Amino acid sequence: MATLDDDEIAAATVGEVEPYAVKVVLEDYNPAWPDWYAEEEAVIRAALGDVALRIEHTGSTSVPGLAAKPLIDILLLVPDADDEAAYLPALEAAGYALRVRQPDWYQHRCLVRRVQSGARRSVNLHVFAPESGAPEIERILAFRDRLRTHDEDREYYEHTKRALARRDWKFVQHYANAKSEVIEEILGRALSG
Question: Cα dist. 28→61, 101, 120 in Å?
Answer without folding.
Answer: 10, 31, 19
